[in-house]
Records
---
Amino acid sequence: MLKIINVEPIVLRIPSLQEKCEWGYDCFLVKVTTNEGIVGYGSSDTNPYAAKGLLMAHDSNFISLGIRDVLIGQNPLEIQKLWDKMYYYSIYYGRKSLAMHVMSAIDIALWDIASQYYKVPIYMLLGGKQHDKIEVYATFEQKLGPVEEDIEEALKIKDLGFKTIKYSIGSYYDYEEDYKRTLAIRKALGDDINLAIDVCSRWKNYTYANRAFKKFSDLNLYFIEEPVAPDDTESYNKLVSTRLSQIAAGENLTGKYEFADFIEKAKPDIIQPDITRCGGISELRKIYENAVMKGCQVIPHDWSTAILISATVQFLAAQKDDVMFEYSMSKSPIFIDLFKNKIDFENGFVSVPDTIGLGLEINEEFVNKYKIEG
Ligand code: MG
């Protein structure tokens, strides 16, 4: 029988980026090894030090076990069974957030293993390929310099062929300043580009956000992302009901229950689960189905490793709907060099690869150079 013989958390840190980085100075990677030599990788966009502690925790009592202990000796092909076990035995300290982040990384590694074992792509195990290519949108971050720097970056992304671009704003904590900058970006890009904004929960509360929504309503935005904190569902609901813009959120939510609750109360137009945080491929299947049944579009969040891109592409390839996800513009070496290959975009689309597993080749030299022990 195929058995898990090791689950290794790998924490990477790029010291030269320690001071400030748009994303990607550290990373939580999981390597799952089997007795037959098949190895699966997963990652989570989380706090890697806390995640490592949670994965390696000692058993506390008979229903509070460390995640690694739950997995050793088990059959990695029993993916849902193992997911359910991880959930049950972390119920004291888990169910949401960090435990779900760790479970996401494990779940992705298990799908990687299953695909290699059965020698078919992950999308086949999920029911078959329904897309040969998938649209992606690009995100770029607001800078704290002259707006011309933001405009330059927006135009560079447009030249790469993206039809939808997201401007991540809010660094000034002042929507009037954000508006001036977004207006300048809109003028520079023209009206044939879908322009979205990510507020990163910086519009405080309903009253403040509602004023901002009115101000931004003439910019024909594709969506406004996370105007307020993810738990502030009443404010989301009131903002959605104004119909001043489509509203997207969900990168910080985990698990089917939290998503179902958010969709029910906030009524967002779009949810943005991150497959490395929300519970992995297995849980995203449930989150996705529920969202679609509730008339909500799913546009996954994507701003970390090549694993995140591969897992998202394999998942979306197996969905019947028009699908799209975010493509990271990060310049972090963890995004670019951790694997010797990754799925690249071309003219605003990625092609769905027919690879076995995640189809990524780990760069061992890179891992050894930046791995943090202890
Ligand atoms: Mg965001």
---
Amino acid sequence: MSISKAEVVARYLPKSLAPGVSAEAFAPSNIALCKYWGKRDAELNLPINSSLSISLAKLGTHTCLSESVSGQDEVWLNGESISSNSTFAKKLLSFIGLFRGNLSQPLRVVTTNTVPTAAGLASSASGFAALMMAINEFYRLSLPSEVLSAFARMGSGSASRSLYHGFVEWQMGVREDGMDSHAQRLDLQWPEFRIGLLKLSTEQKAVDSRSGMGRTLETSHLYSAWPMQAALDLEKLRAAVFERSIDQLGSVAEHNSLSMHATMISSWPPLLYWLPESVAVMRQVWALREQGMPVYFTMDAGPNIKLLFTKEHQVSLQQAFPLLEVVEPFSV
Ligand code: PMV
């Protein structure tokens, strides 16, 4: 039996809360280069492997928390009021519920994603990270950033990494309460590093990451090789990042992503997130590499592709992929 989220959080809360008037926070989205795939504890979102990501600068989520004057909790998303019965509002309010104790004060949560809808990125990582920071400020909890990262993880695993900009490593941790399972920023800048977002489909993903991970763990024989590969890839990626080597970073990240997808495809029923368009882009990337262009890709639990490259090749890649949306992770 795992410890409940509420039990873990309660250990860090003051005896009585002193809410402020309002609090605002921003957190960036992130793309994993060494993926998180598989939970050792599904209640606390504790991972089977450590992971490493790059945050997407200004693309992410702004969240503002204040007292609701309507007398009820209110949730707003991208300028629209959201029904409190919707899955989105329920998830968000139940997360806030971990922190508000017995306070009856109703809240107004206004959340705005700066990720363009055309980019095809999940917003749960930046969403829970921004919400956690806003809660910390609103209730004047003054929690240190490792604790905020560990708590954001309980909303969505990858949210632990969205507390920081730049390259970020999430250590899996070993504790039962998960408080050593949090992220930290790698202390380096790489201003020339670029991520290119290629949205290939607008459809909602058929199987979300939580169910996908569960199914993979239960049914894929290949999964047993994953934790070891992820551990080795993480070491290589950290070295690549500090050496600013795009070939080392790109090749390890692409291999890591395809290995994660191999575990998904070998699940039953199979989890194939790719579309024919995804495969066409992969082949185009490989052809460009054959011609000497240092470009690599990574993919998450969906059909969209993220390209990894450096500034000097940006113009050529934008010509090769007219829909490419380029992010400069170190522009903030
Ligand atoms: O944080 P979740 O539950 O959305 O899972 C994220 C899973 C991947 O995006 C596939 C990998 C990762 O590390 O972000």
